[in-house]
Amino acid sequence: MNPARTFLFLAISSFVAAADLTPQLGTLGDKLLEETFTGTELPKGWASNTGTLRVADGSLLAAEKSSDMHIGAFRFRLPVQDCAVQIDFKLGAGRIFNLGFDPAPGELKKKGHLLSVTVAKNGWSIIEHNDKANPESKTKVHAKAETAFDPATTYTLLLECKGDNVVAQITGKEPLKATSPDFHVKKPGLVFRVGGKDGQEIAFDNVKVWGLK
Fold it and tell me: CA-CA distance, 144 to 124, in Å (whole number)?
């Protein structure tokens, strides 16, 4: 491929990755959050529970830290219920990441996370997390697909929650869908988890959250 065509291909690829995806469960309401990480400091509201979290080169970079003895985890507090969350991501050297929600306090008689979209280099899924207060409870995989994610490619993920239904879309992939009677509950904010060895950062950018009508 000659240089001109290579440049055009890269430009088109970048445009596709950055374009907004179209919701399937409803129409977008008010925009509740838009963050592009253009500064040098963590924007207000982004907090790391475990792992490392920093802003560099216009992206949010997150990694697991072995000394924590726990997968890297960070959050953005934003009370939502029916909503759509869109984010660009690049796996890089990282192993896996999750984007999902916890149930708001008092919404469910369970302990732990509610649901997540998980993305790894060889596939992705929608999972409903187990009840940590019940040793017999198991995490349920509602939908999954084996498909390759190029570590050097930036993808766009759109996660929709409306009522008991969840749809996840990623550019160039078939959507995943799931339904559970617990999914409709109020959610206190976004929950991210990242896995890999020390320093194996996953990059995030262009975070947008809307209400979903």
Answer: 6
Kind and range of the H or E run holding 54: strand 52-56
Q: Around Cβ 19, how many Cβ atoms within 10 Å?
A: 10
For the segment 83-117, what is each residue's pLDDT rounded down to a tens digit? 999 999 999 999 999 999 999 999 999 999 999 99
CA 107 to chain centre: 22
- SS3 at position 96: strand
Structure tokens at 163: 């009522």
Question: Quick one: which H or E segment has residue 100?
Answer: strand 96-101
Q: How many Å apart are CA 155 and CA 139, to the nearest integer?
A: 26
8-state DSSP, 1: -
Structural domain boundaries in the chain = 3-212
Is-contact 18 156, C-beta < 8 A? yes
- Is the Cβ–Cβ distance between 142 and 179 less than 8 Å? yes
CB 213 within 8 A of CB 160: no
Distance between CA atoms of residues 91 and 96, nearest Å: 7
* 109/181 Cα distance (integer angstroms): 13
Q: Rounded to 10 degrees, what is the CA torsion of 91, 92, 96, 100?
A: -40
- The whole-number average pLDDT for the span 128-143 is 95
Task: State the Cα–Cα distance between residues 40 and 47, nearest whole angstrom.
Answer: 15
Token pair for 145: 């697909």
CATH number of 3-212: 2.60.120.560
